[in-house]
Amino acid sequence: MKPKEMKQVNRFNVRKVAVLGAGVMGAQIAAHLVNCKVPVVLFDLPAKDGPKSGIVAKAIDGLKKLKPSPLGVADDAALIGQANYEEHLQQLAGCDLVIEAIAERMDWKLDLYKKIAPHVAPHAILASNTSGLSITQLSEAIPEAMRARFCGIHFFNPPRYMALVELIPTPSTEAQVLDQLESFVTSTLGKNAVRAKDTPNFIANRVGIAGLLATMLEANKAGLSYDVVDDLTGKKLGRASSGTFRTADVVGLDTMAHVIKTLQDTLSADTDPFYASFATPDDLSKLLAAGALGQKTGAGFYRRAGKEIQRFDAATGTYVAAGGKADAIVERMLKKPAAERLKLLRESSNPQAQFLWALHRNSFHYAAVHLGAIADSARDVDFAMRWGFGMKQGPFELWQQAGWKQVAEWVKADIDAGKGLSSAPLPAWVFDGPVPEKGVHTAEGSWSPTQGKNLPLSSLPVYQRQCFRENVLGGGAVDPHSAGKTLHEDESMRLWTLDDEVVIASIKTKVHAIGPGVIDGLAKGIALAEAGYKGLVIWSPDDPFSYGADLQAMLPTVMKGGAKAIAPEEKKLQDAMLAIRYATVPTVAAVRGMALGGGCELAIHCAKRVVAMEAYFGLVEVGVGLIPGGGGLTYIARRAAEMAAAGGANADLFHFIREGFTAAAMAKVGTSALESRKLGYVLDDDIVVPHKDELLFVAIAQAKAMVDTGWRAPARKLFPVAGRSGASTIKGQLVNMRDGGFISAHDFHIASLIADVICGGDVDGGSLVNEEYLMALERKHFCALLEHPKTQERIMGMMQTGKPVRN
Ligand code: NAD
Predict the structure, then answer these.
(1) CA–CA–CA angle 694, 386, 344 (5° rounding)
(2) pLDDT of amino acid 4
């Protein structure tokens, strides 16, 4: 990358952010800023009683209890500054970005802008998180001088986990402001930005909620029950597995009603020809009136009665057994390629198929009619639906995939026959110009009806940090599975390079399980890297990093030769871990998603970890009745010795041992990169990367920088262990847990073996050992456990149901 371009990205230096409004969104946005190491101060109204910042303090406290957690580490809530508009307005002067997220009322927002305007720094960006109000109208309340630096910044709930952020300019917003914000939300906050026009509800909620209402309407028309609709509109359509109604239950029916009302209030029959389909569905009104708000009240479209899941029956107002599924014939149709699928659905007389065709037709119709008004290009609509509504594909991608012209004819025929939700005709660009031949997405860019041409992807320098940038179908994305130069490939591993300087090892097995093929591939990767490259990066194009050892691959060996036959295989795994640790070139694990068991062991043996915010590390072998056997316990023992040594003469080795022991014995999994760091699997000088698509770029840069700055592999050293007395202390506590009924006898047995390895076995406290010695202990206990019937029961259970067996 050219240094000049990078400079441009960095010019907007966000030293501190102010978030105004400590409600659902404001507090969680503040939490995510803290996750990303951005200093933040959170404002709300002064409290009437008690300390003036009481409202904010309470909101911050609430963050610690919220699920899924908005914070990477709950304790970091303390890093959010607390402020109120009466005492602390002067703090705004030190903020480079001010995000307003107060209640959705134009008059309240305008009042607040007047109050804060004199205090906002002249260079700062002021942005509103409103979901439905006009950004341009909001901007009119602020002094003219500030308008160039005002825009919309629409996060989705929950902001830590939802990728989409819509950025909305007004006619007065300076272009540079959006560029700066887009770079910031992308690289620093790990979000995916889409620019939206200033129209009601912007892109995702406009298209998404209209689609939701259309789904409810068509379901009603077709006489389909919620359970069947959810089965049809979940995973089978490439959407969230909870489908339509269960998603509504999870979100909360009151929230849903609120979003629908925003659509009703901000639009009209004049501004949206589909307006008639935005009426609140009767079932929803009935449930709201009964106070059945979904999951949070225990009942909504569904409820649980004992072990049974029941669905609401609007006709009788009672709940009846749920469990209805898609018809097998429809399920088969949904597995066909796009063109055939839509044809089959459209032509079938099956009501479920008819329902699904209507759903697609409505979504194509709605997106095409509104595209020009709401978005710069078709890509922005598809991206918004992927990132804001968790769809695998947006409407235009599917349309194009299924054959643009044919689908356009079908949709037109339905509109002409009065079957659509509106009689609005498809816009002319659907049939004339380049789109019918080439589709809306091409390698050059995506169609913009207002500009009459294809617009390329944004060329902001920040995207150079994404080696494989997400793109829409038809957009000419490079496939990371075959990109670059392949150096070696088999069914378990691809070794390749992008720059002829660093070898990339991509594990190819299912859930990236580590079996003999992967071990072999890693050895080859190290040999290749040591022979002619600067380093080795372990990265795969998709989640997870790795779910750990391949139990299935282990089985035949155990069947044939008993547990002892596994020992040489396990030794190979341990040797691979040591080879990674002591390789003469740096090894860098680029981790996102799960790094469990052997996957965790692989990452912790690398010279460095580059970790996405959403990365979850854990030694979870206990769940299948085993102990970590790929060097995980050896790592804990060594790290404890290193930390004790760093702590000086008075540091107590046992204190560090106990922490590592607890993490492994309780199979703790870090629920973020930051929590994984607390567990000791991510180190202080490892790098946490907010955006998962920047991982590879950062990992390669790290490997090169390590070499360029004189990195050498660690020396092989002896280190002290806590010995038999340490293990006895731990076991003493375990006895109490077992006798108190907190852990089973088998848990006790496994935990004792973990303690034995971590403390170095039957030796005196302070004895010096090496990694090979501890790994031999790991192997001994691992193999013995494999022969234990209760462990076998756990392994079989996990393989059959994917759930841990408690025995
Ligand atoms: P909320 O009701 O949870 O919180 C609103 C906050 O505004 C409260 O802390 C309240 O004390 C404060 N407030 C109320 N009146 C005020 C006033 N007159 N002056 C200053 N502060 C005042 O709301 P929310 O759901 O967090 O929504 C906040 C904004 O974010 C809204 O504009 C909303 O449209 C938008 N938004 C919400 C969601 C969502 O899912 N909830 C998603 C995206 C965007």
Answers:
(1) 135
(2) 44
